[in-house]
Amino acid sequence: MAQDDVKTIDQLNEEADIAADYLEGLLDIADYEGDIEMGVRNDRPTVQIVADDDTDIKHLIGRNGEVVDALQQLTRLAVQQKTGERSHLIVDVDGFLKRKRQRLRDIALDAIDAVKDTGEPVDLKPMNSFERKVVHDVVREEGLKSRSHGEEPHRYVTVYMRSKAEDDELEDEE
């Protein structure tokens, strides 16, 4: 499937089903109790692991989300193995990604305020691609611009004011 091809809702639901089966197997192996909730959000299949036991669930998140990130990568590979196509599946554990998005939004808004106050660009700490995308989206929504710099794993975002020429271009497009 070409990168520009959009997957149907049935294909996205199939990916979520495959992912749920895979994650249920992993939970059984690890002897963790958990419910799996599936869905599609922003044209991406999503799978959420929800558990009653806070102790076990914390192990599935890990320090700074490292375990949930690894679970996502492994689950995407399992889906790709079954479908033959790359998946943009999102795996979340107990709402971790929602809380992470909100923290990143707050960081981006603080940087935006600093840029507006001083007029100077603000560099943020290194982030992974998911984190950078969240920041770029917030910055764009707020009418500023941002750019990623550096090499992984030290890639970071800089937030800038839009130049007068960019503002004029935006007005011309409207």
TrEMBL record:
Domain R3H: 98-163
Pfam family, one: R3H
Stretches of the chain forming a coiled coil according to its record: none
PROSITE patterns, A to Z: R3H (PS51061)
Entry GO MF terms: RNA binding
Protein's recorded name: R3H domain-containing protein
Origin species: Bifidobacterium callitrichidarum
